[in-house]
TrEMBL record:
GO terms for molecular function: flavin adenine dinucleotide binding; monooxygenase activity. This is FAD-dependent oxidoreductase domain-containing protein 2. SUPFAM superfamilies: FAD/NAD(P)-binding domain (SSF51905). The gene is Foxred2. The keyword Flavoprotein applies. It comes from the Eukaryota. GO terms for cellular component: endoplasmic reticulum lumen.
Length: 669
C-alpha cells in the first residue's frame, strides 16, 4: 500500500496544473501575466531564458529601437501620453513607464531589457525561467473549460497541464530562402556588427525591411557599395502609415541610391537567384536556370553568367559578402498535430491562423498574443508591436474573464445627455483607439428609449457580431461604434502623401479626411456574421444605418466647437431623434410651458433639481452671447412687493420645479 501511494504521488507530481499557461516572457507574455495577476487568476509563465525579454538582449543587432519614446507632449494626461510612448506596458505603477529608463527618442535595446526585467520583478509576476517548452499536445476531457487540457513538456521532460494556453513566443525563427549557393549567405542573426570588418568590401543584402536597412546603415560609410535585392518595392512607413515598413531612421541607403552614390536597390524573386563562388572567394550572382542540368562541382569558368548574354546586367560585379535580412517567422515545430495550428496563407504565412478574437482557428482555448498575432491587422495597424499588442492582450484578457469567470466586459452607464461629451473625451485621449486604428473600437450600447447608454472601450471590431456572447452585454436597442481611420485612398507604397491640399479642413467635407480621424458608425441592430463577411473592401465594419466622420485635425485635437463638436452632436441627435443640448434652469422652465416634449437634459437634470442655476452675471453673459433669451421680469414698483431678483436662487428653482413637475404629470395624463 505504501509503495502504491508513493507511486501515485510521484505520478501526480510530474503533472503540474495551472488554469492559464503563458509561453514566453517577452513584452506580450509579461502584459498577459500582469492582467492575470491583477484578476487573481492561477497562471504560470514559461521562459526559456534566464531573464524576461531575451529577444531584446540580441536584437536588433545594432541596438537601436525604432519605437518612439516621446518624453514631452505638452499634456499631463497619462492616457494621451501613451499615444506617443511606444515602449511602455500597461500597468497601474507609474514608475514602470519607459520614459524612466531612457530619454532617447529612439532608445537603445538594452534599456528595453532593463525595463522588462524591472516590470517582471517589481510586479512579482509568476515566471518560471530556464524552462523551454519543447512540445504541446491536447488531452480530451469533457470537464475541462474548453473540452480539453493542454499538456506542455519542457526540456527536462517535466509535464504541465493547463486549461487555457496563451502563446507569447513572438517571431524568432529566421526566414531563410534556399537556392543554389545559399550556403555562402550570412544571416542577420550572426553577421558582424563591426563596420571595420566591411571596410573596402562590396556587399549584397537580401531583404527590404528595417533589419536590412539597419544593417546597411551601419556599414554605409565604409563599403565600396551596397546593393539590396527583394521581391517587392520599398515601402516607406510615412506613405503606408504602417510602422513596420521602412522608417526614416534607417533609410540612408535611399539617399545614396537616388543621389547616385554607387549604392542601389533591385527587385527580383530571391528563389530564382543562385550564387557562385570563384577561386578568389568572390560571390557572383546568377540565375537558377543557368545552373540546371550542370555539374554542381563544375568551376565558375564553365558556368554561364547573366552578363555573358547581357553585358550590362545590374549585378554583374562580384560581391565580397551576401547578407540575409528577411525577418522572422513563427515556430510551429513544438505543437502536436492535434492542435491544428496552421500557417496563414500568402504574405501572412509566417503567422499562425487565428480568429479576430486572437484565438486559434484550430483549437479552442489557445490564444496567440504579441507579434505572432499580427495576422489580424498585418500591414494595417500596430498589432505586431508593443504599442499595439499591449491593448489587444488586454482585450484577450477581458474576453477570457467573461468566458471562464463570468466577469462581463467593463462598461460605464451614462445618461444620454453625456453621449457627445463621452465620445469627444475618448477620441481626444484614448491611446488604444489611436494606436489600434481600424481594429479596436469603442462600443456604445443604447438603452431603451435612448434615455441612457452603456460605454465599452476598445473592443475588437472583427468580432462585433459576437459582442453579446463575448462581453456579457446586451445590444437590443441599437449601438454606435467609435473607431479611428485613415482616408480610404491615402495609404500605400505608391502614394504621394505630401501632395498639395492633402488635408481637409471643412467640416462638410469631413468624409474626405485623409489623416487619422474619428469615425462613428450607427447601427439599429447588431451586425450579423454574414454582414461582417460582406462588408465593403477596405472597410473595418459593414455599412451602417448612418455614419459620421469627424474632420481630421492638424493637432489631433478634436475639441473645436464648430468644426468638431457641433456636427457630431447634430449627427447623434438625428440618429436618436432627440435634443442633446444642455440648458440653463430658466430655459428648461420655459420649455415646460412651450413644448410638448422636454429635452432630456431638462428631464434628467432640471426636473430632478439638478439644473444649472445661473447667477445674474452668468445670465447676462448667456443673453449677450445669444445662448438664451432675456426672461427677466420688470421690477415691481408697489411697496412691500418683493422683487424677484431678490429671491434666493434655490427658492426660485424649487418653485419652478414644483410647477414643472405638475405640468409634466398633467401632460403625461
Amino acid at each position: 500500500l505504501s509503495l502504491a501511494l508513493y507511486a501515485s504521488n510521484l505520478c501526480s507530481a510530474t503533472l503540474l496544473y495551472h488554469d492559464y499557461c503563458v509561453i514566453g516572457a517577452g513584452p506580450s507574455g509579461l502584459q498577459a501575466a500582469y492582467f492575470l495577476q491583477q484578476a487573481g487568476r492561477d497562471y504560470i509563465v514559461f521562459e526559456r531564458s534566464h531573464a524576461p525579454g531575451s529577444f531584446f538582449s540580441l536584437y536588433p543587432r545594432h541596438r537601436k529601437l525604432i519605437s518612439i519614446n516621446k518624453q514631452h507632449t505638452g499634456k499631463a494626461n497619462s492616457e494621451f501620453n501613451l499615444r506617443h510612448d511606444w515602449n511602455s506596458l500597461l500597468t497601474y505603477d507609474r514608475q514602470l513607464l519607459f520614459r524612466h529608463y531612457s530619454s532617447d527618442f529612439f532608445p537603445d535595446a538594452d534599456a528595453m531589457v532593463r525595463y522588462l526585467e524591472d516590470f517582471a520583478s517589481r510586479l512579482k509576476l509568476q515566471i518560471q525561467y530556464n524552462t523551454a517548452i519543447i512540445h504541446v499536445a491536447l488531452e480530451t476531457d469533457e470537464q475541462a473549460w474548453n473540452g480539453h487540457y493542454f499538456i506542455l513538456t519542457d526540456q527536462d521532460r517535466q509535464n504541465y497541464k493547463c486549461s487555457t494556453l496563451l502563446v507569447a513566443t513572438g517571431m524568432w525563427v529566421p526566414n531563410v530562402v534556399n537556392f543554389p549557393g545559399s550556403e555562402y549567405v550570412e544571416g542577420y542573426e550572426t553577421v558582424s556588427i563591426n563596420p571595420e570588418n566591411f571596410a573596402g568590401q562590396t556587399v549584397l543584402i537580401l531583404g527590404r525591411g528595417n533589419s536590412a536597412f539597419e544593417t546597411a546603415e551601419n556599414i554605409l560609410g565604409v563599403t565600396n557599395f551596397i546593393h539590396m535585392v527583394s521581391r517587392s518595392r520599398v515601402r516607406l512607413s510615412w506613405a503606408t502609415h504602417y510602422v513596420g515598413d521602412l522608417r526614416a531612421i534607417n533609410n540612408g541607403l535611399l539617399d545614396t541610391y537616388q543621389l547616385k552614390s554607387l549604392d542601389g536597390l533591385l527587385e527580383g524573386d530571391l528563389e530564382d537567384l543562385a550564387i557562385v563562388k570563384d577561386k578568389k572567394g568572390k560571390l557572383h550572382i546568377t540565375l537558377r536556370f543557368y545552373l540546371e542540368d550542370r555539374n554542381n562541382s563544375a568551376g565558375i569558368d564553365s558556368i554561364t553568367l547573366p552578363q555573358d548574354e547581357l553585358d550590362n546586367f545590374a549585378t554583374r560585379a562580384p560581391y565580397d559578402r551576401v547578407i540575409r535580412c528577411l525577418g522572422w517567422k513563427f515556430d510551429f515545430s513544438i505543437y502536436n498535430r492535434s492542435l491544428k495550428i496552421m500557417p496563414e496563407k500568402g504574405d501572412k504565412k509566417k503567422y499562425p491562423q487565428i480568429k479576430p478574437s486572437y484565438e486559434s482557428r484550430g483549437t479552442r482555448g489557445l490564444f496567440i498574443l504579441g507579434t505572432a498575432s499580427h495576422s489580424v491587422d498585418f500591414r494595417k495597424s500596430a498589432g505586431g508591436f508593443i504599442h499595439g499588442f499591449r491593448y489587444t492582450t488586454r482585450a484577450v484578457h477581458r474576453l477570457l474573464e467573461n468566458r471562464h469567470h463570468g466577469v462581463p466586459w467593463p462598461s460605464t452607464v451614462y445618461p444620454i445627455t453625456q453621449l457627445t461629451n463621452s465620445i469627444i473625451k475618448r477620441v481626444n485621449e484614448a491611446s488604444g483607439l489611436y494606436q489600434m486604428f481600424s481594429v479596436l473600437a469603442d462600443i456604445i450600447l443604447l438603452r431603451e428609449n435612448a434615455t441612457a447608454f452603456e460605454y465599452l472601450e476598445e473592443y475588437p471590431v472583427g468580432i462585433l457580431a459576437e459582442l453579446e456572447t463575448q462581453t456579457g452585454r446586451k445590444a437590443t436597442n441599437g449601438l454606435f461604434v467609435v473607431i479611428m481611420e485613415y482616408g480610404r485612398n491615402f495609404s500605400g507604397a505608391d502614394k504621394d502623401v505630401f501632395y498639395y491640399n492633402r488635408a481637409v479642413g471643412e467640416a462638410q467635407h469631413a468624409w474626405q479626411s485623409n489623416f487619422l480621424h474619428p469615425v462613428i458608425y450607427h447601427y439599429k441592430h447588431l451586425p450579423t456574421e454574414h454582414e461582417m463577411i460582406l462588408r465593403p473592401p477596405g472597410w473595418p465594419l459593414p455599412r451602417p444605418a448612418s455614419i459620421h466622420h469627424i474632420v481630421e485635425d492638424f493637432l489631433t485635437d478634436w475639441t473645436a466647437p464648430n468644426a468638431h463638436i457641433l456636427p457630431l452632436r447634430r449627427f447623434l441627435e438625428n440618429c436618436l431623434s432627440t435634443d442633446l443640448r444642455n440648458f440653463f434652469a430658466e430655459s428648461c422652465f420655459l420649455f415646460a410651458f412651450t413644448r410638448q416634449r422636454v429635452p432630456p437634459f431638462c428631464q434628467q437634470g432640471y426636473v430632478r433639481m439638478q439644473g444649472l442655476v445661473g447667477s445674474e452675471e452668468l445670465q447676462r453673459h448667456a443673453v449677450d452671447a445669444g445662448l438664451m433669451e432675456n426672461f427677466t421680469p420688470n421690477d415691481f414698483s408697489g411697496e412691500g412687493t418683493p422683487d424677484s431678483h431678490h429671491w434666493p436662487q434655490d427658492q426660485l428653482l424649487r418653485d419652478q420645479v414644483i410647477a414643472i413637475r405638475h405640468l409634466v404629470n398633467a401632460k403625461d395624463e
